[in-house]
Amino acid sequence: MAQAYRYVLVALLSFLVALGALWIGRTLRADVPDRGPIHAVIHGDLDLDRDQKLRIEELEKGFAARRGQLERELRAANADIARAIEHEHAYGPDVEKAIDRSHVAMGELQKATLRHVLAMRAVLRADQTPRFDRAVGQALTAAPQD
After folding, report:
1. What end-to-end distance do the CA atoms of the chain give, in Å?
2. Hey, what domains does the chain have and what are their CATH numbers?
3. Is the pTM of this model over 0.90?
4. Which of 40, 64, 100, 131 has its CA 20 to 30 A from that of 118?
5. What angle do CA 8, 9, 11 make, to 5 degrees?
6. Is residue 132 classed exposed, middle or buried when 0-12, 13-18 and 19+ CB atoms within 10 A define those classes?
7. What does the alpha-carbon distance between residue 83 and residue 77 come to, in Å, rounded to a whole number?
């Protein structure tokens, strides 16, 4: 019975890790059209000048590549969790190590995303930042959407 409990616990934890990664990506992705308040504000509400648009476009291109790399790392870490569960059939050291790898990958994705958001903020004029900051606050505190 204890082994079944561990199986369920590991499966639930893996699901929550994946759900958390999905939420982070959906909430903070500023370079994908129609992906939340940050994107809407940057590309629709701030009346960016030509130079700002070009600079933000460059930031978005760079971040898209980095985000892709980090998302691949997260998927690989989740695959490690699945393999460890299949191998150990319990919450053992391999499962724990794989979960830790997943957490590191998720954390790096979140850090990179926040660096990107703040790099975009640095492109804005002082009169544009309050509106942008509100959008960032909304993105970080909004309930996950289906």
Report:
1. 34
2. 2-141 (1.20.120.1490)
3. no
4. 100
5. 65
6. buried
7. 10
